[in-house]
Amino acid sequence: MKPSDFNRYRRYTFYTICTYSIQGVTLDKILLFTLTILVTYLTGIFLFSPLLEKLKRHGYVGRDMYKTGNPEVPEMGGIGIFFAFLTGVLFMGVLHDISYVLYLTIFILILYFLFGLLDDLLGKGVEDASPKKMVKIFVPFFFAYPLANHVQTTMNIPWVGSVEFGLFYTLLILPLFVMVCANLTNMFSYYNGQSVGTTLIVLIFVVLRLYSREQWELLYILFPFMGAAMAFLSYNIHPAGVFPGDSGDLMMGAMIGLCAVLGGMEIFVFVALLPLIINFVMVAWWFIFEREGAKVKFGGVRPDDTIDPPNNRTLMWFFPYYFRLTENQTTLIMYSLVLLSSLAAWFFF
Fold first, then answer.
1. pTM for the whole thing?
2. Residue range 131-149: mean pLDDT, rounded
């Protein structure tokens, strides 16, 4: 083979590889998504070490109730998720145009983060059933309104078909869905790594569904967010070195809800979040209809490190109530339940 022919063959091979497409996803997109999630993950890893030291030094700590001795653990890890995510968005913005709708989505995530951060700073000592706490749950209802003119108002309901909701969707379903997802995730933040692990499981299935539908736009902020969440999971997994706080949990739940309404996946996400919904129903029933006993917030830990739940009134306490399980084992059960519900959403909805 002549040198000129070899060079021509090499250029052709390189061109073929660079333009290769799998159902419309070019190598350029794959490379962009991979680099973004890597940059965001590494940024989060570098951010969390100094952040945790500062949080602990300034007294922003909470007790890990399911460890012997209840050690103090830094809270408000959502700060690290937030800044790592913004770094990933900035990196993505340099290499790819980010649409106006995505900037609105980021703005809503910022609102949820700031609202959660305010609750982390000022909400200590407020009882779960107090009127002030209930008001705080519903304030974020209005945060999603900037997207009112940028979402489809038609929902594809199984066994019914496409239903047009019009203003009912934009004024009620849209803000309510995002708010509920945020609060469900916040209520599911009980054991080490539980809320962020749940979020990542659901978001992986959301990414797969978006990919199958060739809906690429949301991926440009989803991958930075998932990179930040994975970095946080490295510090939050058992035994946790940091807690997400309301700032992290509300933001993670809001991202799930925003993906659902922007991607037309409301039913899909609803099914994927069934364990969180079941937990909410159990807690609501306990608080509203059962008058016996104190409404305790935490259980205890036995000498063998197994959980000692006060009752079986929440999904997190249900399994340890009947079986001697450690915190890590219970968290894995919660992951398994969310994985099963996500698989059900994938195959049936």
1. 0.89
2. 83
